[in-house]
Amino acid sequence: MPSIEALAREAGLGVGTVYRNYPTREALVDAVFRAEREELCARVKPLLDEHEPVVALRRWMDFYAGFVAVKHGMAKTRATAIPVGTVPSGDAKAALTAAVGSLITAGVHAGTLRADVRVEDVVATLAGIFLTAEDRTQAGRQLDLLVDGLRTAPPKSPS
């Protein structure tokens, strides 16, 4: 990871400004992590405005997969990093649970997602996918399986 001095230069900031706001590399990484998590969670509403809930959920999961992939590198830098792929705790868990909850609720109201889905189970399953997937392609297939399992059953044809 680049030094704080290099990051300050790239951002067009004085190194003193960066150190005043982020006295350690970990503080800077944590701030970036929070900002990116907020951006990830903020994508829910626009996705729901543009797509049916199942599609919005699946697209949000792709954004989340990208977020987690970047965090693998950041976790090496963070002194107090939680293992990447584990269920986050505290503010991170609350934010992600709220984001997933909004998507699930919209799908339940639209009749496209099962009403018995527990948001916490989906968040934990996502963590498992991101922890065990060998690459983004495999993660994508696993996310497809997850979304298919969350869908309401198609109507049965009359016999």
Give a written overview of the molecule:
The chain is mostly helical and 159 residues long. The chain has one domain: Tetracycline Repressor, domain 2, CATH 1.10.357.10. Helix content is 72%, strand content 0%. The chain contains eight helices and no strands. It has helices at residues 4-11, 15-21, 25-42, 44-50, 53-77, 90-110, 119-132, 136-150. Helix 1 (4-11) crosses helix 2 and helix 7 runs antiparallel to helix 8 (136-150). The chain is elongated, with a radius of gyration of 18 Å. The model is unreliable at 76-86 (pLDDT under 50).
Q: What number is the mean pLDDT? A: 84
Helix content: over 70%
Strand segment count: 0
The N- and C-terminal alpha carbons lie at a distance of: 62 Å
Strand content: under 5%
Q: What's the helix-strand series? A: HHHHHHHH
User: Which fold name fills CATH's third level, the topology?
Assistant: Tetracycline Repressor, domain 2
Oligomeric assembly: single chain
Shape category: elongated
Number of domains: 1
CATH class categorisation: Mainly Alpha
> What can be said about the biggest beta sheet?
none
Helix/strand-derived category reads mainly alpha
Look at the structure and name the CATH superfamily: Tetracycline Repressor, domain 2
